[in-house]
Amino acid sequence: MSNKHGDPFKRHSGIFKYMDCSTCHITKDVSESIMSIESLSVDPHEFGWWMFVPELIEPDVPQCLRDILFYASGADARWVKLDVDGYTYDSLPKYNW
Left, alpha or beta for 63 (phi > 0: left; psi -120 to 50: alpha)? Predict the structure, then answer.
């Protein structure tokens, strides 16, 4: 099975897990600039963003997003749904804004 993008995930079945994550795990500054982080694939939704979990996390990714992406990757999730009502993780930093 392959896709039109050269398939970096050759072992996938076309069905992916995602991490549901509260926006309290990102800083206000990051929330205002998340769409301009060139090395990430981010799409807005009504209450936050969908973010693809890359194989390699580039240096331009802010620490709060790095923490989330490493957590998601460790759980074999390919996407993160950042949402104001998303799940809150005790092991990730929380930011009040």
Answer: alpha
Tokens 């990102």 correspond to 26
Q: How many helices (H) and strands (E) does the chain have?
A: 2, 4
pLDDT in tens, 53-96: 999 999 999 999 999 999 999 999 999 999 999 999 999 999 99
Burial category of 72 from C-beta neighbours within 10 Å (exposed 0-12, middle 13-18, buried 19 and up) = buried
Q: Which two tokens stand for residue 70?
A: 């490493």
Tokens 């929330």 correspond to: 31
Which residue's entry shows tokens 């205002």?
A: 32
DSSP 8-class letter at 26: S
**What's the predicted TM-score (pTM) here?**
0.85
